[in-house]
Write a structure and sequence with these properties.
This protein has 8 helices and no strands. With 231 residues, it is an all-alpha fold.
């Protein structure tokens, strides 16, 4: 099959992810109470099941448009694992600084406090939710997002615009996706920093490496949120 325009593929994949995630996290979660499903449970099911489905749909689209799976560089090697681990350690320093900037810029409002209190109450009442959250947000989400945002989107944007611009656009798109889905800019600096870090790691060591970095970062922050409830 002839290769389609890489920039067009990237644009369709970005738009497709946003539409599908909004449909699941705003649509399915909003109707969950009507069928007797706790909204928080519904949201975590979207993370654990919905994200892989979104990634699978968009991956099939990219392959049908002529993108080669070899270009994603998903080989799990010692070099990729080491690069991902080192990048995660560096990432914790960068992200903690970015979080402080976000607090200065956007504050830590009542919405964030209320969300934390809701999460604490839910985990205390149903510890299984904490496990689902850890698995979904800590492991499944990074695997799905790295496949699409660094494997597919960044690959095509770098092909179309070059390394610097391609990584930059992919990072901004990744951050804006979260802003749109969350309906909040309160994590904007942190998300831009994370996107740039993962973009550089993917370009240097491959998508397998950026997946390791993303999974380690998400797991540590998710485990910290759970630990504040039970410890």
């Amino acid at each position: 099959m002839a290769r389609s325009n890489p920039i067009k593929i990237a644009a369709v994949v970005v738009g497709g992810w946003i539409v599908l995630e909004v449909a699941l996290r705003r649509g399915f979660v909003s109707v969950a109470p009507a069928v007797g499903i706790d909204p928080l449970l519904a949201d975590y099911l979207v993370l654990a099941i919905g994200f892989p489905l979104i990634a699978a749909i968009l991956t099939l689209y990219a392959l049908e448009q002529g993108q080669r799976s070899e270009s994603w560089e998903r080989d799990v090697t010692a070099r990729a694992l080491a690069g991902g681990l080192i990048a995660a350690i560096v990432g914790f320093v960068l992200l903690n600084g970015a979080i402080l900037i976000d607090i200065v810029l956007f504050g830590f409002g009542e919405t964030s406090r209320a969300g934390g209190e809701t999460l604490t109450a839910a985990f205390e009442a149903r510890p299984a939710l904490a496990i689902l959250f850890l698995v979904g947000n800590g492991f499944v989400v990074p695997v799905a997002e790295e496949q699409v945002w660094r494997g597919i989107v960044q690959t095509d944007l770098v092909d179309g615009f070059g390394v610097v611009v391609g990584i930059g656009i992919a990072s901004v798109a990744f951050a804006l996706k979260h802003v749109i889905v969350d309906l909040s800019v309160s994590r904007l600096t942190m998300l831009l920093t994370l996107g740039l870090l993962l973009g550089v790691v993917r370009h240097r060591w491959g998508t397998a490496s950026s997946t390791v970095t993303h999974a380690l970062i998400n797991t540590v922050y998710s485990a910290s949120a759970v630990a504040t409830v039970f410890l």
